[in-house]
Amino acid sequence: xxxxxxxxxxxxxxxxxxxxxIESVSRSAARAGQPVEIVVALNRCTDRTRxxxxxxxxxxxxxxxxxxxxxxxAAVRRGSADAIVTLDADSRMSTxxxxxxxxxxxxxxxxxxxxxxxxxxxxxxxxxxxxxVAPHVLRRRVSTGMFWFRREAFECIGGFDERLPSVEDLDFxxxxxxxxxxRGKRYGTV
Length: 190
What we know:
The structure is a single chain. This protein has one domain: Spore Coat Polysaccharide Biosynthesis Protein SpsA, Chain A, CATH 3.90.550. Strands 3-2-1-4-6-5-7 form a seven-stranded mixed sheet, sandwiched between helices. The model is unreliable at 136-140 (pLDDT under 50). 43% of the residues lie in helices and 18% in strands. The chain is of the alpha/beta class and 190 residues long. Strand 1, helix 1 and strand 2 form a beta-alpha-beta unit.
């Protein structure tokens, strides 16, 4: 059966968290009763990330450029479904996420959207990123974290901007929302 959703996961040495991430996607897909494809883009991995991901049924691709945007783009482009979700390897999907995304991603009123994510781990870098992004998220009314969209919208805005060393997710959200505004569609949050 062809997948109705591709879940694109960028990963750099994530052997300790990739299993929980993939299992959370599988549980969410099972609860929704929908076939989901999981694609992991491996970025300069020196641990067992690939072995763990493949043992759980993920399709892996390699992208070794030093750009999180390039790794995200590689995972999205490797997927085969028209609808896509991006999810970080150290995150988990709630059991109702696949159903909620599918209810909106194929709804012509929406261009796509995001979620309000809670990090599974904290670091100084994550804290500073959240502080830098928070004012923009609140003022411009976009959610980041995990994204959901159709392939055509992704290609129309050129994917994640691979020239950006950080905040590529905020930039993606703003460009996706702008495309929606041009087309009379909403940017949603699940």
